């Protein structure tokens, strides 16, 4: 979006990118030095980009700032998995062998697989898990 707003449609791609301080060809922007095999001498092209004037440095600055921001966690668990885990904990507590034999275990998960799914749920939603366990304990106390 930063490039889009700074783009001048009357100029070529190379001119627009040069004004923003961006490279049109990354191979020319950061050349790889050529080495001779026998003499271990390093050849350099001697090309410097000191002659280019950056007229729109704010574009690169905004892009660098946006890239430095921490990434938001957007991964969540499916509603089906959450319901499955809650059902298993509600009916079987911590008994993973019973969970494996339950009729709602459609995918025929082993006790270890079920335990792993419950641990994933605990890690993704620790507050929700604590509230759920507290509500189960409250239900047991109300029944007794």
TrEMBL record:
What the entry lists under InterPro entries is as follows:
Ribosome_biogenesis_Nop16
Kindly state one GO CC term assigned in the UniProt record: nucleolus
Task: Spell out the subcellular localization from the entry.
Answer: Nucleus, Nucleolus
Q: Where is this protein chiefly located?
A: nucleus
Q: What is one GO biological process annotated to this record?
A: ribosomal large subunit biogenesis
Q: Which family does it belong to?
A: Belongs to the NOP16 family.
> How is this protein named in the record?
Nucleolar protein 16
Its encoding gene is what?
Answer: Nop16
């Amino acid at each position: 979006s930063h490039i889009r707003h700074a783009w001048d449609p009357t100029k070529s791609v190379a001119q627009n990118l040069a004004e923003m301080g961006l490279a049109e060809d990354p191979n020319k922007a950061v050349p790889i030095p050529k080495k001779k095999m026998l003499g271990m001498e390093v050849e350099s092209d001697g090309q410097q980009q000191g002659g280019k004037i950056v007229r729109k440095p704010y574009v690169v600055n905004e892009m660098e700032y946006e890239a430095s921001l921490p990434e938001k966690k957007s991964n969540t668990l499916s509603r089906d998995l959450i319901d499955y885990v809650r059902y298993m904990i509600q009916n079987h507590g911590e008994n993973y062998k019973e969970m494996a034999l339950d009729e709602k275990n459609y995918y025929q998960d082993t006790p270890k697989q079920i335990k792993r799914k419950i641990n994933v749920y605990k890690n993704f939603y620790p507050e929700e898990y604590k509230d759920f366990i507290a509500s189960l304990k409250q239900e047991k106390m109300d029944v007794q």
